[in-house]
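#data-curation
PF: Archiving a pair of folding outputs for the training set. Convention for this channel: one message per protein, sequence first, structure tokens after, nothing in between. First:
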Amino acid sequence: MKLKLYIYVLILLSIATVSAQDVSFNAKVNKKKLGVNERLRIDFELNQDGDNFKRPDFEGFTIYSGPNQAVSRSWVNGKSTYSKTFSYILAPTKRGTFTIDQAEITINGEVYKSPPIEVTVTAAVDKPKDGNDAAYIASEKIHLVAEVSKSSPYLNEAFTVVYKLYVSPETSVSNWREIDSPKFADFWSQNIDEKQFKVYDSEYEGEPYRYVILRRTVLYPQKTGKLNIEPLSLNVSVSVPTNRRDIFGRFLTQNANITVSAKNRTVNVKPLPLDGKPDDFTGAVGEFDFTVKTDKRSLDASEAFQISVEANGNGNLKLFELPKPNLPSKLEVYEPENADRVRTNLSGMSGLKKSTYTVVPSYKGKYPIPPLSFSYFNPKTERYERKTSDEIVIEVNNGPVDSEPEKTTTTTNGINKQQVVAADKQFAYIKTTSNLQSIAKKKFFKSELFWALLLGPFLLIPVAMIIRKKRQAYTSDVQGNRIRKADKLARKFLSEAKKNLGNQKAFYVAMERALHNYLKAKLNIQTSEMSKDRITRLLKERDVDGANTIEFISLLESCEFARYTPSSNVAMQQDYDKAVRVISTMDKQL
């Protein structure tokens, strides 16, 4: 009696659980715009079983096939999921915009309705698309989009282009490869590589999609006017569902390789304004701080000090020149050393641009370093801004006093410069007298060199005989030469695999040859003898660590699987790194 009561309670709980689940009843079409000579597939999906399904009238269409029913159940972590689908293939009867009305179904005594869908039928297309063609289905489900952060940047103002690959939920991508990359001829460009691809949920033209960010590129336009951003094109390996079903009613999938391209994008680059443009403007665009400083303010003559001219902030730091200091002529100035520390991220360049001048005073006195001015264009305020440093006075305490009065000349830019006066001992390091000694003539006959040249060939005869004997032994060692040749080939093919990263077929062919030749060199076996069991046994006999053996076998399996399944660039890089690590470790153990 108690057993029956428990069963009733469990039944009631299961019914309550099912009824508590939200009922989902949706309608999906494979396209919302088609030619009058194409076909339309519509699926009515629900997550609970129901009765009395009523299809809509399909105004403007005739039923080409259907209804086809598919039911699936699954258990994941103790939770059951249920899905039931009613599918129709429709043929348009005329052009126009049509609304597919709601379908109805009864679940647990309640009537549920699917949402209406609007579909546009155009004139006949030149080549009707086959709804069962995997390449056509993939082209409708995969889109490459280039998003531009600014459509009207200023000249030399940073903006970004982000390339996103959108994929519909029912489509899976196994691999992609770039076949054409944008050149960015009119831009200074910097790619920001994605360290790890992350999948995001989003929408594309009102439909649910997933996307990954393939590349982000920072651009600085170098010309004004309308500039074209060339498209990025990819070859994508995909798996897509078709209209065909298996014996259980599930949709069959097909693999296809398609080419997708981002559309051309155009930006209108604005020139920098002429109003208020400073005469000393050198092309800096952004937001900057400007400083001029010295490492010493007081020193002796002939000692050196340094002047640092620095601009730091956000902007085109690599695309302009810093102003040069105007120094008194009695200060000897060397060519500047540039020590830029610039990093590029999504907001553009940021960091420090620095020029350091080494200066040596020749005479005692005080030397003023005039203020230095730096101008730049700020795109946020849309006007030119200026930063000016303070005057710096350098005091030289000990040293010769300039005996001649300073003579000044006025340069074309209005800055007075002093005439350079040479010190008496400026060239004291150059010797004007010499103490050369004559070399006595020596006789060659019976000299040390004479006897060395005479007896040398006779001494080399036994050395040549020893080398010849060793060479004959080396040549007769057939097995050793075969091992050395295999080892050399293993290194060669491993290097070839590295060069072919990104080309799956060539990479794994070279990788497999490298692994086989490595085994030939280390285990002295031929390719026909390379079974996994034999390799494992031989490595174990030579005291190779079991973990390394397992990784080596997995590399051989990766090379075999690559013949039948696509592989990503990331997977190829991981296999190459693993091969280098395993071979290096096994070399030490063997």
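PF: Second:
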Amino acid sequence: MAAAGEWWAEACDKFRSARTLSAVESRKDPESEPYRSKYSARALLQEVKQQLSAAEEGGEARLLAVRRAVLEYELGVNHTDTEELSAGEEHLQRCTQLLQPHRLSPDCVSLYIQAQVGRGPGGSPEGALGAVSSAEGRWEGDGNPPLDPSEHFMSEEEKLTDQERSKRFEKAYTHTLYYLAQIYQHLEMTEKAAQYCHTTLKRQLEYCGYYPVEWALNAATLSQYYLSKQCFMESRHCLAAASVIFSQAGQVPSAEDNENEQDQQDLRQRKAEIARCWIKYCLNLLQSARKLLEDDIGEMDSFRQMQLKAQRKKQEDENENDRKKAVLFGTSDICDSVLAMEEKVSSVYPLDFQEAREIFLVGQNYVQEAKEFFQVDGYVTDHIEIVQDHSALFKVLAFFEEDYERRCKMHKRRIDMLEPICADLNPQYYLLISRQLQFELAETYYEMMDLKVSIGNRLEGLDSHTIKKVNSLAQLAIKYYELFLDSLRDPDKVFPAELDEDVLRPAMVAKFHIARLYSKLITSDSKKQLENMQTSLEYYTFLIDYCEKHPDAVRVVETELELSKEMVGLLPTRMERLRAKLGPFV
């Protein structure tokens, strides 16, 4: 086939025009005709395809097949872009079939990879990866990178340099890895998805083939995977890199500038989303440390704390070795910035209040940053979730605080941020969130009551002020537990005979805690005390009766059930003694 003939020059011109229409002119298409340029490009590609079919193959059948494959690929992408997915898949499939005998040859491998990726689930991503790995080894050996698909419709003078070919091939390889990450994520093979995502992000940095905002969001998302595996060093590194790369997108513009307002809004949102990932990092690190340090009753295990502090130097050395082994991001021009960002927050478990407070403050700063965008007006659910995370940061910091008064103040901060939201929220539209807030407020008041009792006991007795405070906190805890339980009732205010699995444990815990709270109310009025004991007995009995009717519930509340049975055995005797003191008229 005479590639230098007039028909061939005309075919090349049409091919170039089609690519320009698709890549450049299509961005200017009006909303009324969003695919106008794409359709024009498709018509040109079809004309070139007809010209190829009419050409005499001569001794160059293979060359003709490869050029047909290029056109099938371009038509497949075109149909996919215009939402004609079935037709797009057919063209891409024909492309891979034409290339199959030559898929690892230098002039075909790059096109084969891109066609496989473009086919989506219908293609063979692992096959594409195998092809690119083989091709990579081949051209690294002889120094000749594979041809770019566009070169099949270029004259010799227009062919790309080896440097440009290499750059485009590396981009195709990276895109294949990114595609594999998505496939594995879809298949819920999270570990493989994370590996491919990490490699993709690393290569994008190495070859400068990324958009800063998109790269930063992907890195921040990957950090949450590492967080789920308690790989805090890797998670922090992803977040630090995300923050550094995001800054390349420029300063987030002020809202007063109306130019490109949507772009500004998007930037502010992405910045807030990365901040939320940082919040989760700080919160998870603190909560994991708490699990490591707490004893059987949820307080600090001092002996365990001393052991871990003694091991700290060894742990730091091991972390340094792990860092050297870890697959980290970064090229020389951003490494220093990433390391500086990492130094702002630890990646090792905090072992005392001061260390915990440093992590807490970083998390709290990101809370404020996230709330700047996710405000309650317009982003109700997001705003409340951020406030809940803020509350959780205070809760876990309180664990490290030895002074009970200061611990109480931390819980009061939680009350102050959660209670107004709970009061303003309409349960009709936000039932799940309302329940979460009610239960958390009840638990927080309960915790504060226990702390006030402990403080009073240390002072060798409860004075009238402390008694009043303890009763007030207990009654507020009961109020919110009851609000939570009322939310489970049907429209006729009837409590369900059988609870759904997702609310079974919180409902039983609420019943158990209300029973305990009534028994802790302090009063000098013996008759009132007897009433409180009777109410407490009723709540304990409810829990026991429910578990007898629904044996599957036992495994969910084993500890509470055991204690309830114990109290049901003790309370009647105590009540009889109190009645005896009050006389026959009670």
